[in-house]
């Protein structure tokens, strides 16, 4: 069953940003359209420029500069161009003052028109910090006392890998929410169930990359502003179920983590791969303990 966080669904802020962009480009289009119409009508009119007075040679010499500027200033076509350029600049200025219409601007100073979008150093520090916290979470799960918590997710009479992995990924889901306020959805399914489900072609093709690199593969949407598309993280594993019984079988599982808002990277892939490996180890131990318990019961009889 798919485990989804409700808050991961597209929210009002995303829709406001989408419609703001639509309004912005609609306004630009309207200004250009009216400018083209006005320019067409202005082209039907005479330029309104006359020849200099032939009887005033001295005056003509004094107005050589005006002979260049005056035809432009008095031309109806140029007046239309200047008028609608002003409207366009005014519209652009309005949306610079409301930067959410296009993108998130980290620093905006109207006096000097100062924009600070170079956040490379902060981004590197943030990525390293996130990476360390994710690996610390995996280390936390590997502590013996926390392994014992994961063991409680196994059925004492019939340990199932799927159940324990679902339990561990729910812990990861809670961790992402508490650390970064990121809302994840995850689903553990068999390979057959994965092929029957409806996923984007890039997600379906990612299984080959998982087999090649042995880690979770992130598939992020090309445009983060498209609010109804998801980012995906895909990982596969083969696990032996019903160990030490006549019903032993190898099951191919696909782990699919998704989010509308949060993008995934290779560190998320390593974390999912690490969690899966840990659960696999505990699953085998659970069956070994179950086998030893039943053996003792038989010996006692």
Describe the structure.
Strands 3-6-5-4 form a 4-stranded antiparallel sheet, sandwiched between helices. Strands 1-2 form a two-stranded antiparallel sheet. The chain has helices spanning 12-43, 57-62, 64-74, 76-96, 120-142, 144-151, 161-180, 191-196, 201-213, 266-300; strands at 108-109, 114-115, 185-190, 217-219, 231-241, 249-259. The longest helix is centred in the C-terminal third of the chain and has 35 residues, at 266-300. It is built from 10 helices and 6 strands; from the N terminus they run ααααββαααβααβββα. By secondary structure, it is an alpha+beta fold. The two termini are 41 Å apart. The chain has 2 domains: 6-115, no CATH class; 120-300, Beta-Lactamase (2-Layer Sandwich), CATH 3.30.450.
The count of helical stretches stands at 10
CATH fold topology of the largest domain: Beta-Lactamase
- Structural class assignment: alpha+beta
Fraction of helical residues: 55-70%
What CATH first level of the largest domain would be assigned?
A: Alpha Beta
Question: What strand order characterises the main sheet?
Answer: 3-6-5-4
Order of helices and strands: HHHHEEHHHEHHEEEH
Radius of gyration: 33 Å
Global morphology: elongated
Rounded mean pLDDT score: 79
Low-confidence stretches: 54-60
Count the domains: 2
Q: How widely separated are the two ends?
A: 41 Å
Sheet of most strands: 4 strands, antiparallel
Q: What percent strand?
A: 5-15%
Judging by the overall fold, what is the CATH architecture of the largest domain? Answer: 2-Layer Sandwich
């Amino acid at each position: 069953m798919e485990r989804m966080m409700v808050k991961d669904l597209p929210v009002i802020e995303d829709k406001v940003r989408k419609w703001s962009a639509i309004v912005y480009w609609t306004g630009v289009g309207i200004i250009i359209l009216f400018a083209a119409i006005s320019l067409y009508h202005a082209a039907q009119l005479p330029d309104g420029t006359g020849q200099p007075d032939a009887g005033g040679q001295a005056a003509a010499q004094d107005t050589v500069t005006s002979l260049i500027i005056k035809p432009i200033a008095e031309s109806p076509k140029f007046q239309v161009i200047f008028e609608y350029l002003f409207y366009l600049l005014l519209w652009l200025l309005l949306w610079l003052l409301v930067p959410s219409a296009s993108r998130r601007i980290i620093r905006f100073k109207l006096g000097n028109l100062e924009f600070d979008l170079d956040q490379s150093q902060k981004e590197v520090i943030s990525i390293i910090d996130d990476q360390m916290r994710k690996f610390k979470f995996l280390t936390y799960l590997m502590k013996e006392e926390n392994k014992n918590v994961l063991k409680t997710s196994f059925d004492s009479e019939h340990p199932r890998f799927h159940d324990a992995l679902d339990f561990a990924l729910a812990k990861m889901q809670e961790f992402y929410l508490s650390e970064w306020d990121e809302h994840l959805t995850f689903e553990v399914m068999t390979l057959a169930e994965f092929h029957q489900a409806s996923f984007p072609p890039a997600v379906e093709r990612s299984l080959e990359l998982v087999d090649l690199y042995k880690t979770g593969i992130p598939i992020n949407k090309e445009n983060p502003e498209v609010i109804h598309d998801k980012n995906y993280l895909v990982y596969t594993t083969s696990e032996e179920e019903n160990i030490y019984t006549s019903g032993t079988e190898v099951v191919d599982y696909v782990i699919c983590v998704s989010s509308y808002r949060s993008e995934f990277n290779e560190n998320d892939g390593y974390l999912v791969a690490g969690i899966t490996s840990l659960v696999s180890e505990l699953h085998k131990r659970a069956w070994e303990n179950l086998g030893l318990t039943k053996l003792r019961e038989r010996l006692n009889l």
